[in-house]
TrEMBL record, chain A:
Gene3D superfamilies: 3.30.465.10, CO dehydrogenase flavoprotein, C-terminal domain, Uridine Diphospho-n-acetylenolpyruvylglucosamine Reductase, domain 2. The keyword Flavoprotein applies. It comes from the Bacteria. One of its GO terms (molecular function) is oxidoreductase activity. InterPro entries: CO_DH_flav_C (IPR005107), CO_DH_flav_C_dom_sf (IPR036683), Diverse_Substr_Oxidored (IPR051312), FAD-bd_PCMH (IPR016166), FAD-bd_PCMH-like_sf (IPR036318), FAD-bd_PCMH_sub1 (IPR016167), FAD-bd_PCMH_sub2 (IPR016169), Mopterin_DH_FAD-bd (IPR002346). PANTHER family: ALDEHYDE OXIDOREDUCTASE FAD-BINDING SUBUNIT PAOB, XANTHINE DEHYDROGENASE SUBUNIT C-RELATED. It comes from Hymenobacter perfusus. Pfam families: FAD_binding_5 (PF00941). This is Xanthine dehydrogenase family protein subunit M. The lineage of its organism: Bacteria, Pseudomonadati, Bacteroidota, Cytophagia, Cytophagales. Residues 1-223 form the FAD-binding PCMH-type domain.
UniProtKB/TrEMBL annotation, chain B:
It holds the Pfam family MoCoBD_2. GO terms for molecular function: iron ion binding; oxidoreductase activity. Residues 32-138 form the Aldehyde oxidase/xanthine dehydrogenase a/b hammerhead domain. NCBIfam families: peri_hyde_PaoC. This is Xanthine dehydrogenase family protein molybdopterin-binding subunit.
Amino acid sequence: MKTFTYERVRTPAEAAAAAARTPGSKFLAGGTNLLDLMKLEIETPAHIIDVGKVGLDKIEPTPAGGLRIGALVTNTDLANHLPVRRDYGLLSRALLAGATGQLRNKATTAGNLLQRTRCPYFYDTNQRCNKRVPGSGCAAIAGFSRQLGVIGTSNACIATHPSDMAVAMRALDAGVETVKANGTTRTIPLAQFYRLPGQTPHLETILEKNELITAVLLPPPVGGVHIYQKVRDRASYAFALISVGAIVQKDGTGRIAVGGVAPQPWRVETAEQLLPAGAKEFTAQLLQGARPTKENAFKLALVENTVAAVLNEARH
Amino acid sequence: MKFETPAGINPIDQQKVIGQPASRLEGPLKTTGTAPYAYEYHQAAPNPAYGYVVGAAIAKGQIRRIDRRKAQAAPGVLAIVTAADVGQLPPGKFYADRLLAGPAVDHYHQAVAVVVAETFEQARAAAALLKVTYTQTKGAFDLTAAKDTAIVPKQGEFGGAPQTKVGDFEGAFAAAPVQLDATYTTPDQTHAMMEPHATMAHWQGDKLTCWCSVQQLNWGARDLGTILGIPQENIRLISAYIGGGFGGKGTALSDLVMASLAARAAGRPVKVALTRPQIFNNTTHRPATIQRIRLGATPDGILTAIGHESWSGNLPGGRTEAATASTKLLYAGANRFTELRLAVLNLAEGNAMRAPGEATGMMALEIAMDELAEKLHMDPIALRIKNDTQVDPEKPERPFSTRKLVECLQTGADRFGWSKRVATPGSVRDGQWLIGVGVAAAIRGAPITTSAARVRLNRDGIVTVETDMTDIGTGSYTIIGQTAAEMLGVGLDRVVVKLGDSAFPQSPGSGGQWGAASSTSGVYAACLKLREAVAKALGLNPAETQFANGQVLAGKRSYALGDAAKAAELVAEDTMTYGTLAKQYAQDTFGAHFVEVGVHRYTHEIRVRRMLAVCHAGRILNPKTARSQVIGAMTMGVGAALLEELVVDKQVGFFVNHDLAGYEVPVHADIPHQEVILLEDLDPTMSPMKAKGIGELGLVGVAAAVANAVYNATGVRVRHYPITLDKLLGKVNLT
Ligand SMILES: Cc1cc2nc3c(=O)[nH]c(=O)nc-3n(C[C@H](O)[C@H](O)[C@H](O)COP(=O)(O)OP(=O)(O)OC[C@H]3O[C@@H](n4cnc5c(N)ncnc54)[C@H](O)[C@@H]3O)c2cc1C
Ligand code: SF4
């Protein structure tokens, strides 16, 4: 771990301003991802801005009838929040499918969205990795890629985004509210929040430098049956091989976002029109253009099977 | 004391304390966090500094240059030690690996340097500043590719003969009306114990004390002496508590060596712990195998030919994974052939992991038996029973001392409800789950070996036992305490057990499933001597003296035990050694594993639903700790069946998934209710304790039982572990 300086800020605007003031700074929320990466010198911030006390830890109704989830709300609090459980069951289930109770107690909404990939080569600083060291190459593509992405990837990086929560947020059409260093705020639809890797896999979101996430906005509830099915080798405490987050309506229409296949939660709205036709048709469209490796090609069939399971469950 | 003829009745047979389900003596210390592990001896040595090991960034080649200027100048740095400073160190005896690289690098993450600083954080930060440049050379990392270069190795110290032949295997197999010829693979696995490898080293003059995490302490001191070039007598190793080892902490590994070098260089005590990501490639692992099994049988299921060949790889000089060991003994059959082959691979060293060879080989053999049963249209239990043997099949003049494999299978079948099994795969459903059941036999050698102990008695009647036996979480403290309590007629609360110090009389340590049987026998011998000393001190005839309820009784006379030590503490020491009974008798432990799995109809996720083990393993010294060993082993077997694989990157040459996020072991949610039945067994050929080990038996066969259950659930035979859902996708017939 590199030596760093530390400060604690009181307001979101202060946080963004502090970041602008000190080059090489990073926000610290729950620290469950950032600290691990710092110990391995995968992240080497010179300055840490602790945003834990900026007061963004509330979940409030919005005038539109949705919810505004403070960026610092913990995964545990969010999963257990009554209106979330009632109206956004998908989100609650996705959260509870992730990590462990202890981690969820620390992990925050913003930190979860910004957690970094679990590609094993990213974690070993001796290995080539374009995401960690731009231009160094990608050891995973010809190496061990069973866990990695099949779509939205590039010849520079095939890593996935590992979040369960983000899959649910994507299906729920969430928006990410931010404040920039100059004090301006904006709301970014989650659909546009992540970038595909292309030749710059180290750039993962469209956030500007020093831009602070203040909240995640959920539109009014859409009803339907909410299912989050996470598929993994062991029954708990593992990242998804793939996951399917679905909201299925009585008439067979619905929304599905998929995790574990791409550098971001993968959702193709046009494919959703095929949902009433069944899992096969929908998945073919969802994963059109997929470029799996030999080791992770099974994910294509697995997504289709899991979508079938979810649609089957929704019917019963 | 030398044990040469089968044991008669002795004080242990009273089973007042032995055989009782006593809770672990050190349990409260562990649950309250007050049992110190190697890295936690904060007061034992003054002002320790911290060492951080730098592992090689390449798999094979040469260190060209180490630029230490930046690291040396970093805050808090006290010393940096590399091979350039201390020269090339030889390997120890137990491991073939050189524990310090330079100039050659033999495998990924082999220690290249240790950086010592005032704090752990400073050492770690400085370690990242050490600039090592390498010249890489080509290595061999792919067992399949190296298979044809493998040779039949010389017989090593462990694992038995690499090649055995009885009768005419080839002829009998060719002539067999029913044949099975299948190839199975098992991956590299890692021990994944909780406590990382850690040491605090402290030099006082030329004497070295290390608080460490080593399973076999006197071997550890021996190997550390060899590596450092100092006499073993100058080394004291202390491992009072070990947070799991599973064979991965046998003797001296790099934490021990690097801490010793670092402490010498810094002139201060130094603590070194390997980080979790280093452990996988720096230390040892269970090597991968390719196994070909050929079975020939008559139509009514009598085995006429048994052939088992296994290939594994290792660093030059490393051992062979003895995957054929169980096949030599498990089933009858006139014509037999086993062969081990060993290739050179430039991965970390393959070495002992819980039931080395046997767990690995039985992962294959017991699927093969299931496959053969199906070909014969026989129940797999019936096939196993039909081929039971009461003599060593390779040496029929040598009977098993005790062997109740058939009872294990039958008892388990009754308890598990095996008769309800539907033989046709894919027949049973429960909602979205396809249900299957599987069985496998278990066999694990019951070695026993020389072990010494010292016993003290004080005036308060407190008995203190000292031996360098370790407790790696297994219950050694407790069973040793129970042994001494039984022998001296006191309750367990009157016994103090001191383990894990190489200054104590030598035991073989924890390993090879010999620790419990050997160390308690050593304690038995010492206690016999103490009984004599007590009788003598009280002026009694030793032959007539009895020890019960804290009293010493002879005829009408009775004394409190402590009375014997009124004048001075009584101390007795002895070593149990062995004659030739192990040659005359095949001494083994047996078991049967039953497993029910569910395979998700859509995702093909595999979840274990029920497990049962029946074990036949000598006198059960403590049914509670024995059961804990078995359920832990069953859990490990589920990992081996469904999860665990060190993935080799064949280009870079290393295990890629080198942390506990990438290398998955079972969590609670993976493990259902586990049931263990311990069959009664007293084996007088073993020792006066009549006991055997059980800690490794519990693992052997589990993975195959899971594999057979997956087959029964789905109709898909997976011969390549771990059995993951991708190996089933597209193959399960869902109609
Ligand atoms: C063992 C383990 C298992 C796990 N398993 C799962 C799993 O199964 N599923 C899953 O989804 N996740 C899993 N996780 C990941 C976990 O969900 C994330 O670590 C966690 O959500 C990160 O939140 P945090 O608040 O701790 O983030 P931090 O570590 O504090 O921060 C993460 C990143 O977000 C940035 N950041 C934080 N807050 C803000 C903000 N307000 N504005 C801008 N930037 C910000 C930080 O600078 C940093 O770059 C696991 C983690 C661990 C350690
Ligand atoms: S897939 Fe991406 S994260 Fe993984 S090694 Fe390649 S570039 Fe790095």
